[in-house]
Amino acid sequence: MNRRTRLWLVAAGGGGLAVLLVAACLELPAFGGASHPYGDRAVRASLSRHTANTIASVNFDQRAYDTLGEMTILFAAVLGCVVLLRQTRDEHRARPEPEEVAPPVRRYALVVLPVALLTGLYVIAHGQLSPGGGFQGGVVAATALHLLYLGADYRALERIRPVGRYEVGDAVAASAYVITGLACLIGGTAFLANTVLPYGTFNTLSSGGTVPLLNAAIGMEVACAVVVLLARFLDQAVEIEEESGK
Amino acid sequence: MADAVIVVALLLVAGSATAAVAVRDPVRQALVLAVLGVALAVLFTVLQAPDVALSQLAVGSVLTPLLLLLTVRKVKRRGQRKGREQ
Amino acid sequence: MSPRTALLALAEILAWWAALTVLWLVLISTVDTLELAVGAGAAGAAAVAARAARRAVSGP
Amino acid sequence: MNGWTLTAALVLGGGVGATLWGVATGPLRRRVVAQNLSTALACPALLLLSQGYDRPSYVDLALVLALLGPVGTLVFARLLSGELAGDPPRAQGVTWAAAGLGAAVVLALCVAVGPGRAMAKLLVVGALLVGGNLVASRALSGGFREVSRG
């Protein structure tokens, strides 16, 4: 197939897609209307279970099974990354060289690291009350640890980051989600059904039944997964070198 | 007039997304992508979706640039090594 | 570890813990017992991380 | 639409729009400065939106951006230190202007919410924002010595 034919093919496909999209958009409900059938039902369900943040209720209660799937996708993606980016036989590790960092930047990293870690934990713990939740907080907490690479050097990060333990933590958190689901099945009505725990007082940390537990599991899973993922990328970019002559 | 801030956020997203496609060098693309992440977060906020905005901020501000730049560094190092051996 | 270094380590962690607990109290909107307990725990974890990071950069 | 959201729209359109132009064109040293400024300006805008919509929990967004925005700039400063060493960015003026805008927005919001826990939270966000962006700007202009790897 020559270049001209390929271009025509792309133009035909793109044109068809554009026509369909425009046709679909013309039939959409108007922007910012007052009728929200799904939203009204989701809010009602979340309020009946004392969950202040409706999004958390949708993610970890009404559609908790979806979140299990999403967590599995992240888990599988990180697993694939670990396998693909492992150190192969024709590669060796070079010791990373220390980096000279300006003192203000280093001090900033050392001060902001615990603050960012605490903020990540805060976002995880208040997932059912305010915007945020396990995923967002987990990413913030994992990012906080990598300030040590940015503000110092890779050797400093390696001293406080035993990757093996984070891999175990990732698996433990993923299992914790499934085990909570099974507990709901045994003690309640169905897999991941939020009927086991009391719903608590509205707008407090213990409200929402199993939502805070699932939030915490996801937070730990995401934080560990991001740390492991970045560890593989950092290893490749900083330490692992191909043997010369290959 | 009431939706001025929504229009501004939409224009910022459209502009930065177009720029992210138009810029060709991966390093500069990562910079535009970081700005696109911030613009998207603002758009989600003005559309009253703070949870999605928080996800976008968490992932787009540090994680994506770091993964991209580490990959660029790895590829460049391999290129340098190949260049030295030839 | 001599008693002196142990005491210094404890002081460093306690100082971070106190500062981070205050920060947690600033971040939250309503205070109750559970909130305080979770905040103290999270601040403790972050304080240990702060000391570990400081030691990783500048030695013990 | 009230004064807060209108100001946010102005900051977004004028400030972040300008940084978008800066990040998409020109030499690398201008682009990294523009990236730093984009977070330094978007964070006050998020604070203004939180006040404009009267949703105190939206301050969490600004808090996360004030923490992670400068860290994102540190990523670029760290991993592009080689490219930036020969041609370091000089942007004292605009950096301080953005820091001043952030401080002014935080102070205005503090006056609006009155003393209390919410005000302390705003001050924390403001301190992280201004301090973080000044440090990130410092890191861009020679915060990292060029090394072969590390």
UniProtKB/TrEMBL annotation, chain A:
Annotated membrane topology: Multi-pass membrane protein
Keyword Membrane: yes
InterPro entries per record: CPA3_antiporter_subunitB, MnhB, MrpA_C/MbhE
Record keyword Glycosyltransferase present: no
Record domain MrpA C-terminal/MbhE: where: 3-103
Gene Ontology terms: cellular component: plasma membrane
Keywords: Cell membrane, Membrane, Transmembrane, Transmembrane helix
Bilayer-spanning residue ranges: 67-85, 105-125, 131-150, 171-193, 213-234
Family statement drawn from the similarity comment of this UniProt entry: Belongs to the CPA3 antiporters (TC 2.A.63) subunit B family.
Name assigned to this protein: Sodium:proton antiporter
TrEMBL record, chain B:
Transmembrane segment boundaries: 6-23, 30-47, 53-72
Entries under InterPro entries matching the protein: MrpA_C/MbhD, Nuo/plastoQ_OxRdtase_6_NuoJ
Domain of life: Bacteria
Lipid bilayer topology: Multi-pass membrane protein
UniProt keyword Glycoprotein, yes or no: no
Pfam name, any one: MbhD
Keywords: Cell membrane, Membrane, Transmembrane, Transmembrane helix
Predominant localisation class: membrane
Chain ranges of the MrpA C-terminal/MbhD domain: 11-77
One Gene Ontology term, aspect cellular component: plasma membrane
Keyword Membrane set for record: yes
Location in or out of the cell: Cell membrane
Protein name: DUF4040 domain-containing protein
Organism, scientific name: Streptomyces luteolifulvus
Taxonomic placement: Bacteria, Bacillati, Actinomycetota, Actinomycetes, Kitasatosporales
Automatic annotation (TrEMBL), chain C:
Source domain of life: Bacteria
Swiss-Prot/TrEMBL keywords: Membrane, Transmembrane, Transmembrane helix
Annotated transmembrane regions: 7-28
Keyword Transmembrane appears in the UniProt entry: yes
Protein name per the record: Uncharacterized protein
Species annotation: Streptomyces luteolifulvus
UniProtKB/TrEMBL annotation, chain D:
Compartments in which it is found: Cell membrane
A single Gene Ontology CC term: plasma membrane
A GO molecular function held by the record: monoatomic ion transmembrane transporter activity
Nucleus keyword on record: no
InterPro entries (UniProt xref): MrpF/PhaF-like (IPR007208)
UniProt keyword annotation of Amino-acid biosynthesis present: no
Principal subcellular localisation of the protein: membrane
Keywords: Cell membrane, Membrane, Transmembrane, Transmembrane helix
Alphabetical list of Pfam families matching this protein: MrpF_PhaF
Membrane topology field: Multi-pass membrane protein
Coiled coil (residue ranges): none
Transmembrane segments: 61-81, 93-115, 122-140
Superkingdom of origin organism: Bacteria
UniProt name for this protein: Multisubunit sodium/proton antiporter MrpF subunit
Source organism of this protein record: Streptomyces luteolifulvus
Lineage of the organism: Bacteria, Bacillati, Actinomycetota, Actinomycetes, Kitasatosporales
